[in-house]
Amino acid sequence: MDSQIYPLPAGLHVIPTHxxxxxxxxxxxxxxxxxxxxxxxxxxxxxxxxxxxxxxxxTQRNTRAWHRRFSKQGxxxxxxxxxxxxxxxxxxxxxxxxxxxxxxxFIDGNIGGDYAPQHTSDLVRWPLLLKYGGxxxxxxxxxxxDLDRLWRETVGNxxxxxxxxxxxxxxxxxxxxxxxFLASGRNNPLFARSHQLLLQLWAADGGKVSTEGxxxxxxxxxxxxxxxxxxxxxEGRKTGAEEVSRMLTDYIIQAQVMTMVMxxxxxxxxxxxxxxxAEHVYAIDYMVGSQLINEITEWDGQKAFNLMSLSLPxxxxxxxxxxxxxxxxxxxxxxxxxxxxxAHGLILRVxxxxxxxxxxxxxxxxxxxxxxxxxxxxxxxxxxxxxxxxTLEFKVIEPFKKGPLLEEKxxxx
Length: 413
Prior knowledge:
- This protein is α/β, with parallel strands linked by helices.
- The protein has one domain (12-402).
- The protein contains 16 helices and 15 strands.
- The strands form 5 sheets. It has a 6-stranded mixed sheet, with helices on both faces.
- It is globular, with a radius of gyration of 21 Å.
- The chain starts with 11 loop residues before the first strand and ends in an 11-residue tail after the last strand.
- 44% of the residues are buried.
């Protein structure tokens, strides 16, 4: 395909074709289903419990784009699953019977709750990064920026002070890394302690089978709940902001755990989270970095879907107001964002339909040639940003907790 079928926004350049895998989808899919053996830390990990072939078409397109863009720069993309006969079963990469790696509910296969697949994927991402290194991303993550360059200048560079890549939800004063994009080398100390704490939460009360109620664990005391002022109205019943905050925190408990570890000083273990974050975490602002479409459309999923489904004006047509806004969205994302996270899961109960849920409902709508959605997808494969995104300049904050990671022991000033 011609890399110039759409306008190239300022701040981007065309990727040389020899750096891209532009073979047909079927051949790319073969590589995704038969990845090469692990040889280094340039691994891009995904998880879909029923395997790549059973993913929704729009998330398969997301995954193919990662492969097309980065495989020739030495990255291997793997979509792990839990299918018994699959070569990409998690069990072929991690010891799924080890209670030091997985909680009993994962080992026994009885994780429950409304979001069991999401919580299953939460439990594989840190063990994979700890053992092999690389990037873990949700299948709903569209990559835009130059991942390979950012890796080479940070985690992949032994001389760099940065050891972790992610997005940070909130200001530079806040500590809220998103778990939909995490990158590190092997045995990262932040992720190792975070996974220890997550396992401890799953082990509470004799062993949990879901994350419900984990927000209230004494081991997380002092970490603000997520959600802010969100409410939910369903079938005539309104769920207030406090209850929604508890629900969201349980749903994204992995991020809550990271926040605690980043705010922990454990002198017995030699861990100072506030200092580690300030020195070693390269965090991209999550709103511009990964949620820009939502910010521009004020989190109105139907509006985002309608705009992205519009066709670009023909040569003789005048651009409409809606086309102008759709163009501004695509140009802004391609120029400013490092990625875009398509929202699913519990957030649908809070916000209603999202661009991701509507692409799921309207199969193929994200890939219609001549539309703004297709322009965005085209740009994520054929073009690259001239610069890498800046990191938030974290300072050392006051700790949430002083004491051992896994004990309800506190030292008061």
